[in-house]
TrEMBL record:
This is Cytidylate kinase. It is an enzyme of class 2 (transferase). Residues 6-216 form the Cytidylate kinase domain. Its main location: cytoplasm. Transmembrane segments: none annotated. Its EC number is 2.7.4.25.
Length: 220
């Protein structure tokens, strides 16, 4: 079981997944991408033909959700049943419905319980858990809690550089829409009490990781 839990929240395109994964590598910690669980569920519902706008149908389908995720930052994968969905859950058709799915209260409680089990069973000394409600709901007692932010234009630019075949305007529109929908469910734009903000607007990837590790180590 992990002795140390590091909670990192932030909006889409803040770089939290890549920063958290790399920080976990450097510290020898496990890494849990919670957004991937919501995405895997959205993928599964689309695959099963469940109407993602119908909260009751989504709740009813939860019992059949068979998901597993690697918490090894060097060997990251996500599966639904025995299907590897690591790449498929990043597709725009999944990003387009995931917020609808994630706002259903039964989804949040079921998925949060899964996270608690994964955190409790992680064999490493520590685990970095990243998402939207980790510092406030999933692990409010974490030793270190960080909000990773970046200016909106920078987040849009980073995300469109990652996605090929999508226009910058389309990426920006989808990201803004998703942020708006997600913020109505949990506030991940402002740091809760005791949460340290790391703003990556004007700093590169490596420096962001250094800052995050500095906060984890308790440097001034
Ligand atoms: O982090 P990522 O952008 O992959 O998350 C995908 C979606 O999962 C978010 O847009 C949000 O709807 C949901 N999510 C959430 N709570 C978390 C992590 C993700 O609601 N802790």
């Amino acid at each position: 079981m992990s002795e140390i839990v590091i909670a990192i929240d932030g909006p889409a395109g803040s770089g939290k997944s890549s920063v958290s994964k790399q920080a976990a590598r450097r510290l020898g910690y496990a890494y849990l991408d919670t957004g991937a669980a919501y995405r895997a569920l959205a993928w599964d519902l689309l695959d099963r033909g469940v109407d993602t706008d119908d909260a009751e149908a989504v709740t009813g389908a939860l019992a059949g959700f068979d998901y597993s995720i690697s918490i090894d930052p060097d060997d990251y994968w996500v599966r639904v049943g025995d299907v590897d969905v690591t790449e498929a859950i990043r597709e725009p058709r999944v990003s387009g419905v995931v917020s609808q799915v994630a706002r259903v209260p039964e989804v949040r409680s079921t998925v949060t319980a899964l996270f608690h089990r994964i955190i409790a069973e992680a064999p490493n000394d520590g685990i970095i858990v990243e998402g939207r409600d980790i510092t406030t709901v999933v692990a409010p007692d974490a030793q270190t809690r960080i909000l990773l932010t970046a200016a909106e234009e920078v987040r849009m630019a980073r995300r469109s550089a990652e996605l090929t075949g999508e226009s910058t305007a389309r990426v920006a529109e989808q990201l803004q829409k998703r942020d708006r929908a997600d913020s109505a469910v949990v506030d991940f734009m402002t740091a809760a009490d005791g949460v340290t903000t790391v703003d990556s607007t004007d700093i590169g990837f490596d420096e962001t990781i250094d800052r995050v590790i500095g906060v984890i180590r308790g440097d001034a």
